[in-house]
Amino acid sequence: MSQKKRQKPVVWVEQILLKMLPHQDEEEPASYRGSSGSCPGTVRKMPYLGSEDVVKELKKALCNPHIQADRLRYRNVIQRVIRYMTQGLDMSGVFMEMVKASATVDIVQKKLVYLYMCTYAPLKPDLALLAINTLCKDCSDPNPMVRGLALRSMCSLRMPGVQEYIQQPILNGLRDKASYVRRVAVLGCAKMHNLHGDSEVDGALVNELYSLLRDQDPIVVVNCLRSLEEILKQEGGIVINKPIAHHLLNRMSKLDQWGQAEVLNFLLRYQPRSEEELFDILNLLDSFLKSGSPGVVMGATKLFLILAKKFPHVQTDVLVRVKGPLLAACSSESRELCFVALCHVRQILHSLPGHFSSHYKKFFCSYSEPHYIKLQKVEVLCELVNDENVQQVLEELRGYCTDVSADFAQAAIFAIGSIARTYTDQCVQILTELLGLRQEHITTVVVQTFRDLVWLCPQCTEAVCQALPGCEENIQDSEGKQALIWLLGVHGERIPNAPYVLEDFVENVKSETFPAVKMELLTALLRLFLSRPAECQDMLGRLLYYCIEEEKDMAVRDRGLFYYRLLLVGIDEVKRILCSPKSDPTLGLLEDPAERPVNSWASDFNTLVPVYGKSRWATISKCHGAERCGPELPKTSSFAASGPLIPEENKERVQEVPDSGALMLVPNLQLTADYFEKTWLSLKVAHQQVLPWQGEFHPDTLQMALQVVNIQTIAMSRAGARPWKAYLSAQDDTGCLFLTELLWKPENSEMQISVKQNETRTETLKSFISVLETVIGTIEEIKS
After folding, report:
1. Best CA proximity match to 664, nearest among 729, 612, 733
2. DSSP states of 689-720 as a string?
3. Which GO terms of type biological process are on file (predicted)?
4. How many Cβ atoms are within 10 Å of 601's Cβ, its own excluded?
5. pLDDT under 70 in the chain at which residues?
6. Predicted pLDDT of residue 88
7. Which residues contact 343 (CB under 8 A, 6 or more apart)?
8. pLDDT score for 782
9. Domains (ranges, CATH) in the chain?
10. Does the pTM of the predicted model rise above 0.85?
11. pLDDT at residue 226 in the model
């Protein structure tokens, strides 16, 4: 179980904007070898400056008749063009030559050329018409692979006026004899609809797609479902009626696992008309609960739970049957699959406590497992404890408490504390033994656990008070100090050295950096003064004097003044206010909620809600919705109008940002990495400031927010990098360019912002900084 801490996985697409090395068996061009200079702090070197020599060399090679006569040499030159294109070089200069290279019978060469065309067609719309003519011709080729490839490439062109060229090839493709062409044509319908934007839905096309749901090729059927869902998105998506539902159910066995999972998701929209039809459908789905694909099993399970919402015994029976596949997924070599399965196990345990108790050993942690999986398994173990396995589970958790990862060790201690609410004596004994190790991170968490235990389980107060003396020497962090001070204040009459331990805190109060510790010390010392006045009177006076006369934190000063004035009123009044109950076992009911019905979470099953939690997933979904709406914004949009990313509670604050509405940032700014690098090195910093940032950092959320306000990410460090850097660019409607560097230093809990400007405009710069501050501040609130 000795394993370094690993980061929890996150849904993350790395920016492919950083420099890549050339192929090993190919000599680098002179301009490639002689390039230098990069943005400071990026993980890898950014694309080199100047690619004119490379483009000239490749253009010459593509025009060379000797190379054209040799098929392999010609293909290798085209591969070099594609490789440099993916590395960030502007290869649009060879567009005409690449279009000519598409006139070949070589399928591989055609694929490479079509990839190039789709990439640069928006930048060369006039020349792209030549490419369209070539593609239209290939759509009539006798080879179905060529027809399908040409049709797919035509549908991938993102340029104005392309719709009129692709409509007829798509309609022809829908009736093509080759299934591969029909697959491509069906997906092309959705792409064509997206190119039309908000235009009306073509009813004839929708009917054609509905008829293709009965196509002999199963992949065509699944593609039809996806296309209809996209085309009819504004109308609520595809309608699943009884004939379609029964047809899909009968075709399920012929689909691959991806198609089955997709169809199961669409079948959630159909509600059977009678109980007889319901059980007929469940009988058809029964075999998919035994599928070898976890996705199919989870999809079938969710469909069972939704359809059988009026039959709790059927739901319970289904959850029992999927126990085996879930346990297998929890032991999978795929860490992502294992983590998601564990999250769903925890969800099931909310309704069926002890459902996996007989298999508790399956949730023991292995030393090679990443940190986030270990934490989930510990949480599951806490919910599986019963009279039969409590000793084995506690021994396993006890071993985790000395893990080399401090976070995992502390999580195991908290787990023991959670179990202690039911099995108090065994857990308190283990926690007391852990105090003997005198490790700071262990002692801190044990004391916090003791604080919660004496409140919820007053019967263990005596044992806790006997274990506390001496542990103050190994506590340094704020949470541990507050827990210890609270225990000494509330139960100090049972701890012989309680006043002397508090006296040490009073002596060092000037060097204490956490106001919460000082306020806890004030309350604890005043409580202890009521039971042991002779030992506490002098130090209480010194502490009150310091807090009132010297303390700079207003909260601590106000607390000190309040207690001073309360003492002036009289001891009886102090006792009436401060001597509250020392424990409340009834709060244990709040910690252990009643079993939740399956229907309360059935709709969230097989989604990301069990992974993120309901509230956080709602925020993420809102951000994704804003991202999808991004391309539909007008050509210039103000920050004030780009609000879908911002939660409702933060909209007022965003709208109150001074002058941010006057800044018009241009969407879809095309700025290459090498141009950014060259410009960045030539400009001076126009503005620099530091913003606070507490806790973990999620680059994908920040990047998503920046996209919504039309700020482009040029380069970004990997998630988890220390320190973390990002380079951003934006341009307003007057042509003023903003280049930004974000530098996050976790040790300082701050985000440093450096902005460079190609034109000196003070007011515009202030507006841009205001936009950037608001985005970062909003993401900080979402995170917390």
Report:
1. 733
2. EEEE--S---HHHHHHHHHHTT-EEEEEPPTT
3. intracellular protein transport; protein targeting; vesicle-mediated transport
4. 18
5. 1-51, 197-199, 582-594, 624-662, 694-697, 780-784
6. 82
7. 376, 610, 611
8. 57
9. 673-782 (3.30.310.10)
10. no
11. 93
